Amino acid sequence: MEFRDKTITIEENEFLIVPRGVEHRPVAIEEVWLMLFEPASTLNTGDTASDLTKKELDWI
């Protein structure tokens, strides 16, 4: 996970909690599978609205 001031490497079976409001960018060298939990009100593009912003999210 890349942050403005550091990078944190997450290994298999580990997890990371990013506090609300902290800018971050998930990156991976290889394909990964992950489970993401966030409030329904969270935009998938952060505070930037663009063509990539999803208006309707899938519910599982």
From TrEMBL:
It comes from the Bacteria. SUPFAM superfamilies: RmlC-like cupins. This is Cupin domain-containing protein. It comes from Algoriphagus alkaliphilus.
